[in-house]
Amino acid sequence: MQPPKYFHIGAIASLVVLILWLLAWEIVVAPLRPGSWILSLKVLPLLIPLGGVIKRDIYTLQWSSMVILLYFTEGVVRAWSDKLEVSRMMAMGEIVLVFIYFACALLYLRPYKKAAKKMAKELLEKVNSTKSTK
Question: Which of 101, 113, 105 is nearest to 4 (CA)?
Answer without folding.
Answer: 105
